[in-house]
């Protein structure tokens, strides 16, 4: 069980998250949806300590950490146990796909180069990128880069994988391959929080969907509950807008 | 006596080159120390600690705002005074006269270098995409690991032309090391010319030497740039078992 409690974050006077609490069962996939600017990215970034919240704790494997405190040891502990997949991939551009995946294994897990190489090759295989192991990010399409980025995050066996709109920087025809990889990873028992505007995908992959609005969780339930029978007025509004935008032929 | 002894320009070059190691040593040590100090200053300026950033900013402004010749003299006269003061305060007994001029010259050149390099390094560090730094943080790399393995290699590519120019600058700066009683190629030239009064010829010889050194350095930098560039094309990766499998066929 992973627990996030009383998470709040404001940028100057702009309150982005307000007292957000969330319990995540092991192996669950939590889909996070909500309008632009409601703090979805900020939620993930606070969990990963890329942003320091004003208050809030994270409990992971029975260890509770004050996310506000900026304690170096705690920060590293959290980051080493959570993985992040970014909208813009953020691969290390001077490193090959293989080196990107090896990097954390070498520096964080302190594996020997040969062990790291083998482990990284396995991860690349999982995302179907073995043939591109020696390619640099500039040589790869967006979809391929994102698959490598997923392999990089998974190589460290995170207890919680955070995905922030992993497909929204991709050309439409590349979205499918990345979603397929995420679906595969979810099937392998990884615990994930997935922020996405791909409603159909969120609906089909999540065990649980959260609707975030103005820094609050206003809807929380199974995909069926949230998508078919939303209780909150804002959720209904949002979903009707999204489904007008999403034509059926794009549904995967 | 000829007005211009053309032959001498070339025939005295070997005599000048005897002191080339001193010139190169001065330049390399100053460059190395200056770059490291410059990196430190750049990080001080970028970190969000106000005091550190202000100290670094003041230092850079001071060093860039004063001529290198003046800095060399300040080092040459100032360091012995500093040592005497330390002796006075701590009862130690260092002898300033025992310190070779090389140390004064390198100190001044490195300090001068660091101020210029820090700006080059700062710009190059800031050119590194934030996203990659966040990615490194997100997998649990420490700041130092990120700096060494992600930021510096990328920044180096950006900084290289600037640092190359700066190295060429310090090579020429070493010609002022005579102020600290160091004999390198220029000082050697002045000594030679003092004997035969062929000042013009010796300076022409020196000009040729400096020019050739600069050309060599430029070529080395270009070579390094080519070596560290991401290749245009890469072959598909073949797993080992697959490769050996093919070989067996
Ligand atoms: N570094 C920052 N400084 C100031 N304000 C910020 C910063 N980062 C985010 N914000 C603000 O916080 C709010 C929430 O941003 P966030 O990126 O979390 O939204 P989001 O739900 O991920 O939106 P989107 O769907 O567009 O990605 C926005 O109003 C944004 O302007
Ligand atoms: Mg976002």
List the topology elements.
The complex is a heterodimer of chains A (252) and B (249).
Chain A lengths: L1 E10 L2 E11 L4 E5 L6 H8 L7 E6 L2 E4 L5 H10 E4 L11 H11 L5 H14 L15 H13 L5 E5 L7 H16 L4 E4 L3 H7 L2 E6 L2 E6 L1 H6 L4 H13 L7
Parallel strand pairs in A: 3-8, 3-9, 6-7, 7-8
Antiparallel strand pairs in A: 1-2, 1-4, 4-5, 9-10
Helix pairs in contact in A: 3-4, 3-5, 4-5, 5-6
Chain B lengths: L5 H6 L1 H5 L2 H27 L3 H15 L3 H23 L10 H26 L3 H9 L4 H31 L11 H12 L2 H30 L11 H9 L1
Helix pairs in contact in B: 3-4, 3-6, 3-8, 4-6, 5-6, 6-8, 7-8, 8-10, 9-10
The site of adenosine-5'-triphosphate (ATP) has 11 residues of chain A, from β2 and α1.
Walkthrough of the structure:
The complex is a heterodimer of chains A (252) and B (249). In chain A, a hairpin with a 2-residue loop joins strand 1 (2-11) and strand 2. Chain A has helices at 40-47, 72-81, 97-107, 113-126, 142-154, 172-187, 199-205, 223-228, 233-245, and strands at residues 2-11, 14-24, 29-33, 55-60, 63-66, 82-85, 160-164, 192-195, 208-213, 216-221. Chain A has 252 residues and is of the alpha/beta class. Chain A is built from nine helices and ten strands. Chain A has a single domain, classed as Rossmann fold. A six-stranded mixed beta sheet of chain A has the order 6-7-8-3-9-10, sandwiched between helices. The radius of gyration of chain A is 18 Å and the shape is globular. Helices cover 39% and strands 24% of the residues of chain A. With 249 residues, chain B is mainly alpha-helical. Chain B has one domain (8-228): MetI-like (MetI-like fold, Orthogonal Bundle), CATH 1.10.3720. Chain B contains eleven helices and no strands. In chain B, helix 3 (20-46) packs antiparallel against helix 4 and helix 7 (130-138) packs across helix 8 (143-173). Chain B starts with 5 loop residues before the first helix and ends with a helix. Chain A binds chain B through residues 48-50, 76, 79-80, 82-84, 86, 88-94, 96, 98, 103-104, 107-108, 121, 130-136, 138-139, 149, 152-153, 156, and chain B through 129, 131-132, 134-142, 145, 149-150, 153-154, 157, 230-231, 233-237, 239. The structure holds adenosine-5'-triphosphate and magnesium ion. Magnesium ion (MG) binds next to helix 1 of chain A.
């Amino acid at each position: 069980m992973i627990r996030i409690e009383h998470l709040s974050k404001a940028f100057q006077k702009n309150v982005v998250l307000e007292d957000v609490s969330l319990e995540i069962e092991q192996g669950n996939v939590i889909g996070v949806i909500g309008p632009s600017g409601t703090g979805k990215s900020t939620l993930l970034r606070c969990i990963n300590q890329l942003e320091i919240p004003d208050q809030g704790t994270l409990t992971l494997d029975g260890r509770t950490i004050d996310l506000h405190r900026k304690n170096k040891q705690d920060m590293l502990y959290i980051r080493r146990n959570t993985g992040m997949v970014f909208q813009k991939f953020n691969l290390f551009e001077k490193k090959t796909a293989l080196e990107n995946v090896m990097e954390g294994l070498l520096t964080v897990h302190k594996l020997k180069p040969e062990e790291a190489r083998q482990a990284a090759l396995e991860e690349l295989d999982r995302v179907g990128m073995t043939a591109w192991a020696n390619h640099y990010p500039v040589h790869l399409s967006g979809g391929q880069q994102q698959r490598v980025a997923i392999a990089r995050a998974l190589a460290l066996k995170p207890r919680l994988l955070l995905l922030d709109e992993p497909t929204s920087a991709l050309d439409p025809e590349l979205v499918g391959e990345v979603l397929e990889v995420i679906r595969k990873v979810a099937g392998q028992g990884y615990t994930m929080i997935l922020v996405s505007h791909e409603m159909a995908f969120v609906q089909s992959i999540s065990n649980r969907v959260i609707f975030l609005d103005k820094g609050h969780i206003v809807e929380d339930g199974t995909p069926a509950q949230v998508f078919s029978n939303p209780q909150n007025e804002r959720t209904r509004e949002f979903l009707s807008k999204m489904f007008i935008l999403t034509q059926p032929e794009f549904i995967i | 006596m000829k007005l211009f002894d053309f032959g001498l320009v070339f025939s005295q070059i070997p005599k000048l080159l005897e002191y080339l190691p001193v010139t190169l040593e001065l330049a390399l040590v100053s460059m190395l120390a200056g770059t490291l100090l410059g990196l430190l200053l750049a990080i001080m300026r970028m970190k969000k600690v106000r005091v550190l950033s202000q100290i670094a900013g003041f230092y850079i402004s001071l060093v860039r705002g004063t001529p290198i010749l003046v800095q060399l003299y300040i080092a040459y006269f100032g360091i012995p005074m500093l040592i005497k003061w330390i002796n006075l305060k701590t009862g130690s007994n260092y002898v300033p006269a025992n310190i070779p001029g090389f140390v004064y010259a390198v100190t001044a050149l490195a300090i001068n270098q660091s101020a210029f390099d820090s700006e080059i390094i700062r710009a190059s560090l800031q050119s590194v995409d934030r996203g990659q730094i966040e990615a490194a943080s997100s997998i649990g790399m420490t700041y130092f690991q990120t700096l060494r393995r992600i930021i510096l290699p990328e920044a180096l590519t950006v900084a290289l032309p600037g640092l190359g120019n700066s190295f060429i600058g310090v090579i020429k700066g070493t010609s002022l090391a005579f102020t600290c009683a160091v004999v390198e190629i220029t000082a050697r030239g002045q000594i030679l010319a003092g004997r035969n009064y062929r000042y013009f010829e010796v300076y022409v010889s020196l000009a040729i030497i400096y020019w050739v050194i600069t050309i060599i350095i430029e070529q080395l930098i270009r070579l390094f740039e080519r070596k560290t560039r991401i290749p245009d094309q890469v072959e598909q990766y073949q797993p080992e078992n697959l490769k050996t499998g093919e070989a067996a066929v």
